[in-house]
Design brief:
By secondary structure, the chain is of the alpha/beta class. The protein contains 11 helices and 21 strands. Strands 1, 2, 5, 6, 9, 10, 13 and 14 form an 8-stranded antiparallel beta sheet that branches. A 7-stranded parallel beta sheet has the order 15-16-17-18-19-20-21. Helix 2 crosses helix 3 and helix 4 crosses helix 5. The relative contact order is 0.12. It binds iron/sulfur cluster (SF4). Iron/sulfur cluster binds next to loops.
């Protein structure tokens, strides 16, 4: 395999240089391996990394060239980061999942694995005015519902799939509920502090939705979508466990009317006792987010208030013991998630807790900022190895919440992680 450097000029035009062998960043600078590269999937977006020059073999910097990264569509897991040197004027990078990109035989390739497929998560393109008409038709059925205001904003401005699903009546539908949070994630998409140097990509919901507003949306969705899912806890809000009473009442109202579908909670898992009260109310599934199974990287990124990683893991453990479908939203980052100690910590936890699915998502952050927080790895084993070892624990690997109930772990073969 011969790789060629892919880079851009200051005007954003993309070039390949077959005489320069690009390096990637996997926590350490190195050449990408053949098994780490796949042709750039459809819907891959190229991002210029301003005031950053790409590293090439010999650890030289290709000056006067601007480094490029790929932003992957849903369903792929990133294996390597772009390798670059930042100039003194380099601005902070926005919150995206920067992925190594190069050319192989004249075609763009990215360092990624295909790790999931779902019709419900396919990006949909809309004819001019189509989405607006669909939204308006749904809103006309429930004019007084403030939650639909937020979901319309998220659908139109942020292209959020779970918000759009409310109007498209498919798959997993969003029920944003909490304006507050008990963490201060360094790359929170709904609220960033001024020192972040970049605006947060979304506006957090600013009011406390009522059980009645939430239940109306859930019941409408579950009545029309086969195996539908409604999920509290979205990117546009804070932490739903801070609104346990409202969510419990919403669940009770939904279940008083229908037994259809799955009631899911996306959470940081900070309050195990609050989660238990939702399980008692009838919650079916929970997806708990974390960036690491180790205390230091978790605390450095989440900056939690009044809880720590122990409580997060306890939430997963007690939900699994109660028989819920438990997924982890594992925010991955090459050079951190594939550190030997991280893999061992994950294996140790997963050996004692039945997790149905590990959803790998790129941690969307400026890589330099993240490494400054959590440190560079001492022994990076590679993301392919990390994914293979996670799959070997019995948890299914994927990227999204699926509609179909997944068979019990004992009856399921471990899915191999292979390139598409
Ligand atoms: S837990 Fe979620 S809402 Fe809270 S700071 Fe982190 S990303 Fe933001």
């Amino acid at each position: 395999m011969t790789t060629a450097l892919a880079y851009s000029d200051a005007r954003g035009r993309v070039y390949f240089d077959a005489h320069r062998e690009p390096l990637a960043d996997g926590g350490i600078l190195r050449a990408p391996l053949a098994g780490e590269l796949i042709p750039a999937p459809p819907a891959t977006v190229l991002a210029q990394l301003p005031s950053r020059a790409p590293f090439v073999a010999g650890k030289k910097v290709a000056v006067r060239r601007t480094a490029l990264a790929a932003l992957l569509p849903a369903g792929y897991t990133r294996l390597l980061l772009p390798a670059y040197r930042s100039g003194p004027e380099a601005p902070a990078l926005g919150l995206f999942g920067y992925t190594f990109v190069c050319a192989v035989d004249g075609a763009l390739h990215v360092a990624a694995l295909r790790t999931d497929r779902s019709e419900d998560w396919k990006p949909r393109t809309f004819a001019s005015g189509e989405l607006e008409r669909i939204i308006e038709a749904r809103r006309a059925t429930d004019r007084q519902n403030r939650v639909l205001d937020q979901l319309e904003l998220c659908s139109r401005e942020y292209g959020c799939f779970t918000a759009q699903n409310v109007f498209l009546m498919r798959g997993e539908a969003a029920l944003p509920v909490s304006p507050k949070c008990n963490a201060r994630c360094v790359a929170c998409i709904s609220e960033l502090e001024p020192e972040a140097g970049i605006p947060s990509p979304q506006v957090r919901i600013g009011y406390e939705a009522t059980p009645d507003e939430l239940a109306r949306i859930a019941l409408f969705h579950l009545a029309r979508v086969r195996d539908g899912i409604v999920s509290f806890g979205q990117g546009c809000e804070g932490e739903p466990l801070l609104r346990t009473t409202t969510i419990a009442r919403t669940i009770e109202r939904i279940r008083a009317s229908t037994s259809r579908g799955t009631l899911n909670l996306n959470t940081n898992g900070s309050l195990p006792a609050s989660l238990r009260s939702l399980i008692d109310a009838g919650l079916d599934a929970v997806r708990i987010s974390l960036n690491s199974f180790r205390t230091q990287p978790y605390a450095a990124y989440y900056r939690p208030s009044g809880y720590g990683l122990d409580e997060v893991l306890e939430s997963a453990r007690s939900a699994a013991q109660a028989g819920l479908r438990v997924s982890l939203n594992y925010l991955t980052h090459p050079g951190v998630s594939d550190e030997r100690l991280e893999i061992e910590a994950a294996e140790s936890f997963l050996s004692g807790v039945r997790v149905e699915m590990i959803q790998t998502r790129a941690l969307n952050i400026d890589p330099e900022r993240y490494f400054a927080l959590v440190g560079r790895p001492r022994e990076p084993l590679g993301m392919r190895t990390a994914l293979q070892r996670l799959a070997a624990t019995g948890a299914r690997l994927g990227n999204f919440t699926h509609r179909r109930a997944i068979a019990p772990l004992r009856a399921r073969a471990v899915e191999p992680v292979t390139p598409d």
